[in-house]
Amino acid sequence: MLALCLLTYIHAIAQNNKSADDLIGTWLVQDGSGKVEIKKSGNKYTGRLVWIHPPLDENGKPWLDTKNPDKNLKTRPQLGLPLLNDFIYDGNHLWTDGSIYDPESGSTYRCKITMKSKETIEVRGYIGISLFGRTEVWKRCENVVMK
User: Fold this and answer.
1) Could you tell me the CA-to-CA distances from 73 to 49, 60, 86, 139 in Å, in that order?
2) Contact, 112 vs 96, CB < 8 A?
3) What angle do CA 118, 36, 136 make, to 5 degrees?
4) DSSP 114-136
5) What residues contact residue 57 under an 8 Å CB cut-off, 6+ apart?
6) Which of 38, 99, 110, 128 has the greatest number of C-beta atoms within 10 Å?
7) Domains of the chain, CATH where assigned
8) pLDDT tens digits for range 60-102
C-alpha cells in the first residue's frame, strides 16, 4: 500500500512539473512587435526579448534601452533584454511572484502569467495589487535565433 501511495505522489509531482514547464517557449507579444523566449532556471521562469520588429530605430541603429532609469543601462541593446524575472509556478496554470520590465517606459512591474491554452497566455503587469494593472495576450510562436 505504501508503494502505491508513493507512486501516486511521484506521478502527481511529475504531472505538476509538466504543467509548470508548459510556459517554456517563445511567445509573440500582443502588438506583434517582439518575441519573448521563456526558460526555466531552477524552479523559476524568466524571459528575454529575442526578436524585435522593426529591428532598427529611425536612424538604422539597434534599439537601445534608453528609457531605463539606470543611466549605466541606457546604452544596452533591447534585443536580449531580460523582461520577465523570477516567476514561480503556483499551480493551475498560473505563474506568480515575478516581475516584468517594460523597455518602452523603463518601468518594472509586479506580474503574473496565466496560461489560457497551450498556445495563449495572459501576462498581467500591475502596481500593488493585480486589480491595478494591464493584461496582454501573448501567442506561442516558433523559436527564434537571436542575431
Assistant:
1) 16, 20, 20, 29
2) yes
3) 65
4) EEEETTEEEEEEESSSTTSEEEE
5) 63, 64
6) 38
7) 2-141 (2.40.128.520)
8) 999 999 999 999 999 999 999 999 999 999 999 999 999 999 9
CB-CB contact of 97 with 87 (8 Å): yes
Positive or negative: CA dihedral 58, 64, 70, 72? negative
E strand or H helix that includes residue 10: helix 2-20
- Distance separating alpha carbons of residues 60 and 144, to the nearest angstrom: 22
- Which residue shows C-alpha cell 523597455? 103
Closest CA to 112 of 127, 101, 123, 128: 123
**Whose grid coordinates read 523566449?**
37
pLDDT means over runs of 10, the chain (147 residues): 41 54 97 97 97 95 97 97 98 97 96 97 93 95 68
